[in-house]
Amino acid sequence: MSSVIEQIEQQIANLQTKTVQSNIGKIVTIADGVAKIEGLSEAMYNEMIEFPGGTIGIALNLEEDAVGVVILGESTHLKAGDEAKCTGKLLSVPVGKGLLGRVVNALGAPVDGKGPVESSESYPVEKIAPGIIERKSVDQPLATGIMAIDSMIPIGRGQRELIIGDRGTGKTTIAIDTIINQAKINEVGLASGDESFRPVYSIYVAVGQKNSNIARTLGVLEEAGALKYTIIVTAGASDAAADQYLAPYSGVAMAEWFMSNGMDALIVYDDLSKHAAAYRQMSLVLKRPSGREAYPGDVFYLHSRLLERSARVNEDNGNGSITALPIIETLAGDLSAYIPTNVISITDGQIFLETDLFNQGIRPAVSVGLSVSRVGSAAQIKATKQVAGKIKLELAQFRELAAFAQFGSDLDAKTKAQLDRGSRIVELFKQPAFNPLPIEEQVAVLWGIQNNYYDDIDVSRIVPAAASIREFFTTRKEVLLVSIREKAKIDDELGAELKKAYDEWKPSFA
Amino acid sequence: MTRDKQIVDYAKGLMKLASENGTFSEERASAILQVLEKNPPRNYAGVLKEFLKLVKREVANNTAVVEYAGELSPSAIDGIKSQFTNRYGRDISVTASRNDALIAGLRVQVGCDVYDSSVAGALKELEATLS
After folding, report:
1. Superfamily the domain A93-332 falls into
2. DSSP A286
3. Per DSSP, what are the bridge partners of residue A121?
4. Residue of A17, A20, A39 with shortest CB distance to B125
């Protein structure tokens, strides 16, 4: 109590008879979380507007004699005639490592009941993306821990890889697996004391999701020990459309802090379909003209300016990066809808998940034909390139030929061989959720398929065989895994060691 | 063009007519109202409402509404008038009213700009920093 009194005394002593200038306006109408305000002649686009009771809004419509302000959070206590005030500040959110392990709302305020966020800096939510000169090519891998993706659709630090598919095809699972895998890599890398190791910090932005889903994701991350490297920005289904519109920008502002401080960040936008819908709702309430599918004309810009902020910057600019994994939900696999085509054209590749594959038990349900990574093998370590170079082609051929599988007896030997090999690759790529694999284990397993060690194993036993070989390596050949990780390529010596290991394992499994 | 837009444009036209050398003239405004009464335009009520809104805004932009606690000398009012005339680059008139809720000091509003150097304002700011 005495310290509070002292603090107040000090502040009163510091009070100066200065003139405070402010720019005010009056609410004319307020409905659906949008206030039309007369006055505020000095308002800037995206400026924070202060309302009675400490409520904050953002100025989005600057008209000749009025300002359209979208209110963030609770607005039921506001009424026509209330005074609104310009703050002179563009909307910004707290940034920094103090946010790691925390769940915050679209304004960066904590919502996890763990007390205030430790942050001394704030970044504007809207910022121009890094220019061409500041950037460099993507050349460092960002492993997802999912064998099908790391081998066939590699993701690099600074890339934007869209995860797209129908409802319930495992889109979020892929993103969460990636976050967990990065946390595991961070643990190993930081424990090794290697000074050149660059940890990846993750930001998971939940837009328009059920709170129960967000809580489940939080639980999974916590259980996997990944939360301490992760910031969760949440704007749930029950939050206002303005919060849902803002959350991805807040998330990327937090990610930008890591990038501008020479670190690597991974940001997941889950999902941008709901983000676009929230923006549409907001725009319609602001009386902006509607276009295709009732979205406003700038819905492409909405996503392009967000995703362009993901980049890999060069050494002169700190060498940091932001990798983005936006998620889009399709309806009945329709990739040609408005929002999916927009985001596909903005990103550097997409992982397409098919409902049919998912229902067949092929999980992750990655469609090999429609999934691409436009960064390609630049984002793979040499060891992965060596063992997985032909796999995507073989799997694509298998999918083409799969239709003939039902005529098994009439097939020529070559086609049958392709089908056999393809079905084994499919089995090999089956992976349970929230169980990412280290890249060295992936290499060890794929080396086996490349060198035909699974050919005489029955297709139905491929999954247990893969589990067995992984267990064999992790328990008895850990030195070999460490050397794959450190060398990052398979030289003759390592190849011989792998052959010896497989020859040792094969009889034990058979 | 929507009806609302037509009304607004018409009212803006009237506002231009009410200005003399770029400054609002009460005399011209009352003459305009007389002419409108004789020859009412379409949407007369709407036009009048919009014109009134524009006039109010123009008056507010050219008037410094001074609230003070305690006493305010005529010379201080003159000082305020000349200060704000210089600041805005147009002739600003002053209307002063006593408001003891300010405790001490002044609060001046010109249009939507507010200049607060009152004790009540300082206390409000202090309250905001403490909450």
Report:
1. P-loop containing nucleotide triphosphate hydrolases (3.40.50.300)
2. T
3. A95
4. A20
